[in-house]
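WARN retry 2 of 3 for item q-0093 after timeout on previous attempt; input resubmitted unchanged.
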Amino acid sequence: AFYIALGVVFTISISSAFAAWNSTKASGDLILASDWNDLVTYLGTFGTAATKNVGTAANDVIQLDANAKIPAVDGSQLTGINDLSIFSTLLASISAARTSGAIPSGYEWLFATDELATKTNATYFDTSKLYSNDGSFGTDVTSTSYTIYGGATGWTLTPSNSFDNNGSTNGGINSGYLALGSTYIGQNFGAGNGKNIRRINITMPTQDYMTNGTVMYSDDGSAYSSAGTFATSAGSNTLDFISYGAHQYWKIVVNSAAGAGGLGIGTGSAAFSEIEMIERSASTNITLIPTAITAGAAPTYADFYLLHKAVDSVTLNTDIKVRASRDNGSSWSAYITLAEVCQFDSNYKILKGTANLSALASGTSVKWEITTYNAKSQQIRSVATIFR
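OK item q-0093 returned
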């Protein structure tokens, strides 16, 4: 410790700088006000915390307790805490494939099922657990002349039969040649003629059929990426998936097969009566509204978090808008100001905005409304809210 003439005590950890300054003083010297500038030169200018007390009262500096924890204080003015909490909550909930439900001081909608009460012009994708504003489906773009298949042998039933618009003919591989996870059938649309496939309809006979398959796409016929893996069965199957862009090659890889045989290709082989590949038209504007949930008390504010992917270039608060209600939609807040919080993963970002509900009729039946504009392609993976 060192002393100023007025007798005020300052406790400072002795550093090499202080030791250097102290060496200039003789034993018993009184530190005078005129020495202050010298002391500042050695130790640096003190910050404002140097003149504050340690404690939990107004204007005190907080000190960790004996367990290295923050003492009990009012943290209502801290910012960013809910952001981190929501990030962790959504990450854990999506990883565990949880369903929508309450979270501390709020609620999260995870879209494990097609659960929204209103989804005007929107499409729900069960594989990806999201809502998107894609346009309407078009017609089949396959052709027998585009047919590709693998492996090269074992296709006792001509593969192109699967694309001839005739459900009574089959393309199929003999079970003795079926290599699960690598045998495939598909289309090569040709260079410069890539297709943005969004739906595949597959019809398979009851005798022999695929029970699980992966849709894949490529631009060179060598390096493929997955558009999703689907469970299938005998009869008609519709596989819908999000946009992965236009590509030259599209194929279905057989992961498992079943059936009692009867087509002359062996028991447990894979046969396809008809395969259709379909594109979608341009994006549309959508409106999403959930069934109201009940808050514990009438909220004054609601912080909303959206797990959002902008497939097209999207301007927040212009191409997507959000508002909220606390009286089951009888009245709505002004549109909130959305801003990006952080990148959630390689596909999605977390957007945040706060709805002021104080001017609305009091109530606890809370819902939100998401509306897209200007036909910009977007995906909504989940929504969470914190009431206050």
